[in-house]
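User: Hi! I'm working on a homework problem where we have to compare a predicted structure to a textbook description. Could you give me the structure for the chain below?
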Amino acid sequence: MTENRTIRRVTAVGIAGNAVLVSFKLYAGIAGRSEAMISDAVHSLSDVFATLVAYIGVRISRKAPDSAHPYGHDRFECLASIILGLILIGTGVVIGAGGINAIIAGDWEHTARPSCIALIAAAVSIVTKEGMFWYTRYYAKKLNSSAFMADAWHHRSDAFSSIGSLIGIAGAMFMKCPWMDAAACVIICVLILKVGFDILKDAVGKMLDTSCGEKWDADMKRFIEAQPGVRRVDLLQSRKFGDKVYLDAEIAVDGELTLTEAHHIAEHVHDEVEKEYPAIKHIMIHENPAGENAAGEPGDEANEQK
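Assistant: Happy to help. Predicted structure tokens:
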């Protein structure tokens, strides 16, 4: 299956699945007299827009570099993830406000208990949305797509919210505690906000040229120093560029080597790093004479962008 076909299929599954769930849960919420299920339906409706945003972000990010964007369009996925996070947070605030208002009003004596259809809808939603989470997560990893991964977690947040609905509806039905239906809306709100902020944090980090982390850099340093001709790594800097990685490294080589020989070592390191770490989009290798420190005389550079 081609990459574009995979992207279209994941999008179609997300939109179709959520559209069916929205219709069923909205009907179940109204017919079953459950505020929690109506809130759950609103959450699923936000998933439809989230999947569309993820699709647009992924498609644009896959465009080839052009004169206006010589480093490619990878950061459009981060932008899509930020929008997804904001959609989740907005949805959570609306749902939470509704639940809190219902609790404050507190007119439980005249509140009708939810019926069985709302309970069934919650159970169906949990199973369906968990399945959609694993399906989208699988292809998000395959495509190395942060936008689709954010969409996958959007599905799981819906499954979590349906668990809250199930508990609230069951409590209102069987324990004769009608306030539990409204309390479930607040629980749903908290779960959605947590996922939304996590997605935002990850996306913003990738937009700000954040390092890949000490462990990743240390592993990369060991890998480079294991290559033939490399005496040591004087400097190594990594930064995230959307779902890709940019890497700058200074390596120390034998100062008696010719320029051509030093260049071949750098080229070999460059090729081996790209082969071992496919997420790397661009790598620059600079050679220093082994007797010099990282600030020594400039050497040859091996530059290449995928």
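For your comparison, note the following. The beta strands are 232-241, 244-253, 280-289, 301-305. The two ends are 22 Å apart (CA to CA). Good luck with the assignment!
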